[in-house]
Amino acid sequence: MKFLLVFDFDHTIIDENSDTWIVKCAPDRKLPNQLRNSYQPGHWTEYMGRVFVYLGDNGVKEDEMRRTMTTIPFTAGMMDLLGFIGENKDLFDCIIVSDSNTVFIDWILKAADFHEVFDEVFTNPASFSSTGYLAVQNFHAHHCAKCPKNLCKRKVLKEFLDKQLERGVSYTQIVYIGDGGNDLCPVMFLKKNDIAMPRQGYTLEKKISQLAQDLSPVQCSVLVWSSATDIMSYLKLLIKK
């Protein structure tokens, strides 16, 4: 039997938000106010589309973007954790479900040689046009009122598990590692034997605490982490059982 590890990307695997980090490529490393103020809640992907057009209009090329993105630091202890998972792939299936995009995640994982640790990456599709502009699309359509319109992580997780079951693969336990508000929906889908690992001091931890105070706690166990070393300690216990 295997364990399934589900990772968010921004502020979880890397210690920053990849979408805001790209602004370092902009003239004077900032966006014009009009562009910054154009974001509407739930429509982040469309906003990033405008950011990429602005960067393209200002002559920012793919090479420069790649160089900038691969300087993002990994979260404390994360490189050791991913190395450990890589050495134990017979025990762990590992996926990323993220509101970043395929280009950024691919660059960052390949530069650090971690792309083979992950079996699948579910994120917004992105590519460079023939004119050198980066364009990003919504990951999917869904009917979940709790999630941004481009991505419901619960739907992604459920579809992945269904597909694995069709292949004859079921998991002893799901371990969900994340930090953001959009990680709550999949965490609420987890069962009693599963475990949610919210990052200490971030939105997901606060939302899970709030649910417990409202006497509607999540079904799964909750273990807070501040360094990826905490996650690795838990996984080592898991495979000893």
Keywords, separated by commas or semicolons:
two-stranded antiparallel ribbon, 241 residues, metal ion binding, 10 helices, alpha/beta, 6-stranded parallel beta sheet, PHOP2 phosphatase, 8 strands, Rossmann fold
Topology at a glance:
Blueprint: E1 2-7, H1 18-21, H2 33-36, H3 44-57, H4 62-69, H5 78-87, E2 92-101, H6 102-111, E3 120-124, E4 126-128, E5 134-136, H7 153-166, E6 171-178, H8 184-189, E7 195-198, H9 203-213, E8 221-222, H10 228-240
Parallel strand pairs: 1-2, 1-6, 2-3, 6-7, 7-8
Antiparallel strand pairs: 4-5
Beta-strand percent range: 15-25%
Fold-level CATH name of the domain at 3-15 and 74-125 and 146-239:
Rossmann fold
State the total count of DSSP E strands.
8
Q: What is the CA–CA distance across the termini?
A: 12 Å
**What do we call the CATH homologous superfamily of the domain at 3-15 and 74-125 and 146-239?**
HAD superfamily/HAD-like
Helix content: 25-40%
Gyration radius, rounded: 18 Å
Spatial strand arrangement across the major sheet: 3-2-1-6-7-8
Tell me the quaternary state: single chain
- Total helices: the number is 10
Quick one: biggest sheet?
Answer: 6 strands, parallel
Structural class: alpha/beta
Mean pLDDT: 95
Sum up the overall morphology in one term: globular
CATH C-level category of the domain at 3-15 and 74-125 and 146-239: Alpha Beta
CATH architecture descriptor name of the domain at 3-15 and 74-125 and 146-239: 3-Layer(aba) Sandwich
Q: How would you spell out the order of helices and strands?
A: EHHHHHEHEEEHEHEHEH
Low-confidence stretches are none
GO molecular function: metal ion binding; phosphatase activity
Binding site for Mg(2+): 8, 10, 179
Cofactor: Mg(2+)
Active site: 8 (nucleophile), 10 (proton donor)
